[in-house]
Amino acid sequence: MPHSRLAWLVVFVFAGVLMLSNGLKKIFISSGRPDNVIVLRESSSIEMMSFITREQTDIIKTIPEIALGDDGKRMVDGEPVVMINHIRREDGLPANVMIRGVGVKSADIHKGFKLVEGRMFEAGETEIAAGVKAAKQLKGCGLGETINFSNTDWTVVGLFEANESSFESEIWGDVEQFLPA
Fold it and tell me: Which of 134, 138, 150, 162 is most open to solvent, judged by the fewest CB atoms within 10 Å of its CB?
């Protein structure tokens, strides 16, 4: 009898791991695109561990294989990302949320980005746009609400969708405001 219970436990854990794996694949595959490239510094394996200077970003913009936007400029934007702890609406426990500094090209680079409520943040202001999943799950991330990070209050002025990708769990703001923060 004990072996039978152990076998069922193994099957249950294995099924759970497969479900988690399939869910993560769906989220992260929908965030990637075959026509987008993420440039990381040498020895970095993930976006958050990398650092590319503005000068290096300007060099990347000179690569002729990079697509041109409607304005005739290269489709490149430096996007600093950091992870912060914030409180979940559901139970008041802390959760990680990705904060992304975005520039003027970011909405075009991340195809599928669509503002669904409110407006886009204004450059130079302490305003942010939250992904619809972040707004639903995190306190202070709904339209008109305010969150505090890096000793600054940030007002959510817009909510966006991004083809059900992981970007919908992020908070986006003006890259120039985020860099000092």
Answer: 150
Q: CB of 128 within 8 A of CB of 172?
A: yes
CA distance 157 to 104: 17
Per-residue DSSP letter, 83: E
**Are 61 and 74 spatial neighbours (Cβ–Cβ below 8 Å)?**
yes
What are the φ/ψ torsions at residue 102 (nearest 5 degrees)? -120, 155
**Which residue in the block uniquely carries the two structure tokens 């436990």?**
9
* Burial of residue 100, with CB atoms counted within 10 A of its CB: 0-12 exposed, 13-18 middle, 19 or more buried: buried
Q: How is 53-64 classified by DSSP, letter by letter?
A: -HHHHHHHTT-T
Q: Which two tokens stand for residue 28?
A: 């992260």
> What per-residue string of b and e applies to 113-126 under the rule 16 or more CB within 10 Å gives b?
beeebbebbeeeee
